[in-house]
Specification:
CATH class: Alpha Beta
Strand content: 15-25%
Number of helices: 9
CATH architecture: 3-Layer(aba) Sandwich
Low-confidence stretches: none
Number of domains: 1
Helix content: 40-55%
Shape: globular
Mean pLDDT: 97
CATH topology: Rossmann fold
Length: about 250
């Protein structure tokens, strides 16, 4: 018996990193899992990793038509949606003096606007008692150079999560934010041309002395998705190796 037997889940940005690890864990706990992302080849490869419980629907969360197509696919299963992990986001290192309107609009368009409409358009499908999980970031708290716009998008997500938890409580829908610290993912590697030095510097700041693993964040997502967290809503659950706690 898995924690999520008979449940239906959606993971956005589910083809790599935390998204893939979370989709894999949710499927292992018994859920039927939909994943979405912009690159079909990577999605197809992710389905091979996750197994027969996974269904991939390619699309961009910043495109409302893609979201509509995604949710129509889920609706056709006639099971509703029990778990939504709004994970998809983008980031890059851009200091203040180099921020452009296009860069700002891209990050807020995907990370905030895309996440908002991912959740809004899911509302008719969400079963009463469903769990909505948002992907936050410890960058909200630490002020790392070059990540100001990205951190601002994640601060917006944290704020929206509190509000949505209040707005959806009447349906028993819980909304929580998982807040990872530095995690060894392809997205982290892609932030810099010298990834190994960058990772070592990040790891040196973490009290546990290392980066997180995607599977460790996925374990938190599975907890928030399950009835084990039935009395938790509106929170931001840090999985950061103590970075922002000690």
């Amino acid at each position: 018996m898995g924690l999520l037997d008979g449940k239906t889940a959606l993971v956005t940005g589910g083809s790599a990193g935390i998204g893939l690890a979370s989709a894999t864990r949710l499927a292992a706990e018994g859920a039927d899992v939909f994943i979405t992302g912009r690159r079909k080849a990577e999605l197809d490869a992710a389905v091979e990793v996750i197994g027969p419980a996974a269904t991939a629907v390619s699309g961009d969360i910043a495109n409302p038509a893609d979201l509509d197509r995604l949710y129509e696919t889920i609706r056709s299963r006639e099971q509703g949606l029990d778990i939504l992990f709004a994970n998809a986001a983008v980031a890059s290192l851009v200091p203040l003096e180099q921020v452009t309107e296009e860069y700002f609009d891209t990050l807020f368009g995907i990370n905030v606007r895309g996440t908002l409409f991912t959740v809004q358009k899911a509302l008719p499908l969400l079963n009463d008692g469903a769990s909505v999980i948002l992907n936050g970031s410890t960058n909200v708290d630490v002020g790392d150079e070059g990540l100001g716009v990205y951190a601002a998008t994640k601060a917006a997500i944290r704020s929206l999560g509190r509000t949505w938890a209040n707005e959806l409580k009447g349906r028993g829908i819980r909304v929580n934010t998982v807040t990872p610290g530095p995690t060894d993912t392809p997205a982290l590697t892609a932030l810099t041309p010298a990834p190994e030095q960058f990772k070592k510097r990040l790891a040196s700041r973490v009290p546990l002395g290392r980066l997180g693993r995607p599977e460790e964040i996925a374990a938190v997502v599975a907890f928030l998705a399950s009835e084990q967290s039935s009395f938790i809503t509106g929170t931001s659950l840090y999985a950061d190796g103590g970075l922002n706690q000690i």
